[in-house]
């Protein structure tokens, strides 16, 4: 009896262990999507990058609230927005290089009235404060949407504060005699949307305000790239171009000994799975391993009613392809 049970017991227990959290997750995602996203982001999504969970939030209609020195906590939290809907507040722990001690100190010192106050009392390091500025965490306290000052002005102000005498603090009261430098508009241009997203990706590992592929839309439309959400409408063996941010890449061993590369791209509408067999890898391997945002050519392969993948025949760095296209447009316009 024990031998008979052992032959299937592990499989049955394994299936049950997966089934319960799968059902619970499906329920939460359907009825409480903001809480589901906040929980997954807080407790790590495993092999998938957090930016993919951010993209999932967009698809579910869940709003994303930026970092804020007075509202972001240790965990991702659900907040009610002005329209009565739920959004997820980005956590302080998402900041690259921030320590647990800094997170605790920032939260304990709240509320902060401006950058000068935050610099004196938060206990955050200069690199962390710089990241918080560039990712919008001080936008609210300085009303950056008003257009009077911008993120570059705050960076210059931070530099001035760094060179000023260090203020000592007793509780929440500053010692008299410390006069912080004034914050003034420098006349420097504000950050554009693309630059802000680039800062988010570099410093938080997530594109929060916009999906990165939005900035390549004119090029992708011009070359006829297919969105992941439209692939199921195509027949098998359709020639396609797809683009996206590299989410995962695996090279499991094959019986034949030949390497097969499985690539997953996210384009803001879903994920696309592409397979590079050994014959298709020549000339493209360095691009696949070295580029984070890709353009892939191949033929569709249907697997059932809802399954589709791409047998890939080529791959290119999307940034480089976009730059070449942009240069040609400029050259044409100059003629």
TrEMBL record:
Gene3D superfamilies to which the protein is assigned, alphabetical: 1.10.150.870
GO biological process assignments: DNA replication
GO molecular function term, any single one: nucleic acid binding
Domain OB: 240-313
Coiled coil stretches, renumbered: none
Pfam families: HHH_6 (PF14579), tRNA_anti-codon (PF01336)
Name recorded for this polypeptide: Error-prone DNA polymerase
Organism of origin: freshwater metagenome
């Amino acid at each position: 009896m024990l031998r008979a049970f052992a032959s299937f017991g592990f499989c049955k227990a394994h299936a049950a262990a997966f089934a319960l959290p799968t059902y619970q997750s499906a329920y939460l995602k359907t009825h409480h999507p903001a809480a589901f996203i906040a929980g997954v982001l807080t407790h790590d999504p495993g092999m998938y990058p957090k930016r993919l969970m951010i993209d999932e939030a967009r698809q579910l209609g869940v709003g994303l609230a930026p970092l804020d020195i007075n509202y972001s906590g240790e965990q991702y939290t659900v907040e009610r927005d002005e329209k009565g809907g739920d959004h997820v507040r980005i956590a302080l722990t998402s900041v690259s290089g921030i320590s647990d001690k800094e997170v605790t100190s920032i939260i304990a010192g709240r509320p902060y009235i401006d950058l000068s106050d935050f610099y004196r009392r938060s206990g955050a390091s200069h690199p962390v404060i710089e990241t918080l500025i560039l990712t919008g965490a001080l936008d609210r306290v300085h009303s950056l949407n008003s257009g009077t000052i911008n993120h570059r002005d705050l960076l210059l102000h931070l530099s001035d504060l760094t060179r000023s005498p260090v203020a000592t603090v007793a509780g929440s009261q500053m010692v008299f005699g410390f006069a912080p430098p004034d914050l003034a508009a420098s006349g420097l241009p504000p950050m554009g949307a693309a630059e802000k997203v680039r800062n988010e990706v570099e410093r938080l590992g997530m594109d929060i305000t916009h999906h990165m592929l939005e900035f390549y839309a004119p090029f992708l439309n011009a070359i006829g790239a297919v969105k992941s959400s439209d692939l199921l409408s195509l027949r098998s063996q359709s020639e396609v171009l797809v683009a996206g941010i590299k989410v995962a890449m695996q090279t499991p061993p094959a019986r034949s000994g030949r390497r097969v590369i499985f690539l997953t791209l996210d384009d803001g509408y879903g994920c696309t799975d592409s397979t590079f067999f050994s014959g298709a890898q020549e000339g493209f391997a360095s691009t696949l391993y070295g580029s984070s945002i890709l353009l892939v050519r191949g033929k569709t392969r249907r697997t059932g009613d809802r399954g589709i993948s791409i047998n890939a025949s080529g791959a290119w760095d999307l940034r480089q392809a976009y730059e070449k296209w942009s240069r040609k447009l400029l050259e044409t316009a100059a003629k």
